[in-house]
Amino acid sequence: MSSASASTAFSSDGVDIISRKIASSIIPVEGPSDRKSERELRRYYEITRCVRFIKSDPKFERVALQFPDRLLCDAASVASLLEKETGRSVFILGDTSYGSCCVDEVAAEHIQASCIVHFGQACLTQTRRLPVLYVFGCEAIDTAECVATFRRLFPEKGGHVLVLYDTLFSHCIDEFKGQLGAEYFNTMISTLVLPEPVSPQPDTPPTAPAQVTSENVSGSCSCTCSHPCATDGLRKHSETTQGNDGSDQTPGIFKEPERDVYESETPETGHQSAESTTGDTERGCQTEPKPERHSYRRFGRSFELVEPVEEYRVFYIGIEGPTLTNLMLNYNKCQFYSYNPFTRESRRETLNVNKALGRRYFLVQKAKEARTVGILIGTLGAAKYLDIIERLKHILKHAGKKVTYHLLIRLRYTA
Fold it and tell me: Which of 128, 207, 219, 363 is at 20 to 30 A from 64, Cα to Cα?
């Protein structure tokens, strides 16, 4: 082999890489020409609600703002508005340690922040220490077209369909439900579930709970957009009901009893006890048995179905990404259909279409065959991450695999 051919085989000038086109499902990034006016900033970032949250506790003296990369062009303007209207010190987390959908408590603690305002997409992972306000934003969506797409994909109105959606489009769910009407009587729309309020640390005052971003307690937001906020999809948090124990429960933040972190999700079905049925019969009362209900909660979404989830097809409003991939992996017996509000395209999700899911299955198989497995610890802020690591360690050692640990930390420059 000549030296010239050898050079061609093992190196190149990089032109092919630079000119290569990559299919991307990332949300469109705003440029300088897309920057919002002050009125638009107040609407999109719900400034009034942010101010109310920051002023709700006098100890919120240092506020961390977390933006995804695509919204950093507005970060300085938003920080300036909040600092001016609250009188508190406001900081922008411009170097988020991990994914922007996760609340970065690590970066916030580097500046001794007392609370975090998280903007944009959120995976709704349980946090550990700091109070959090979630502001999903009011992304543009043609609700009428979305409903028309749903009707085209599911023409049989009695079919069992489950509607899931990205947090970015939670504000349009009420309108979506209203336009869909009652004719789709077997269609269930999921509810967003915010993380539980963080437990107060010893010798520290109780912290404020994470909050849904509907603008005021009456169920509407400060948005001037044509789409109402998802007060139904987010369980109208302005209404307070009383629990069986007499305590106040806010429907906007769904709560369930603590369970082991390793417990696999199983549907909760409603059955009448034998004692109760027998007692009613002896008293001569004819009680009609209640229909079975199957309750599910995962990835910050909850829903209650009349049939097991495997009997449902899923309509997802959002883009291809980690959220859709995780949902497809966990509800893998369901057929998924998606609608992308940015491209206005819909499709039936399959392994060939969703490349991320196909790669995930490939990597799962590789992990099964591996003799040595490395556990990459990429978070220090998610609740119970140490319990999860211990569980993985136990499973891998039981399978006869060697385990190594790798901690992903932020690179720091020291002069």
Answer: 219
Beta strands across the sheet bearing 294-298: 191-192, 301-305, 294-298
Rounded CA-CA distance 48/52 in Å is 6
pLDDT in tens, 103-120: 888 888 888 999 999 999
The stretch 14-36 carries a mean pLDDT of 54
pLDDT in tens, 329-382: 889 889 999 999 999 999 999 866 677 778 878 888 998 899 999 888 776 667
Residue 249 is given by DSSP the state E
Q: Report the DSSP beta bridge partners of residue 164.
A: 316
Cα Rg of the chain, angstroms: 24
Q: Please give the structure tokens belonging to residue 42.
A: 């107040």
Which pTM value belongs to this model?
A: 0.66
User: What confidence tens digit (pLDDT) does each residue in 177-197 have?
Assistant: 999 988 899 999 999 988 876
List the one residue out of 44, 171, 221 whose CA is nearest residue 119.
44
CA distance 109 to 384: 18
Segments in 154-261 forming alpha helices (H): 173-180
Among 237, 43, 34, residue whose Cα is nearest residue 136: 43
Nearest to 102, CA basis, from 139, 128, 127, 80: 127
Residue 230 · residue 194 · CB < 8 Å: no
Burial of 32 (0-12, 13-18, 19+ CB in 10 A): exposed
Residue type, 306: V
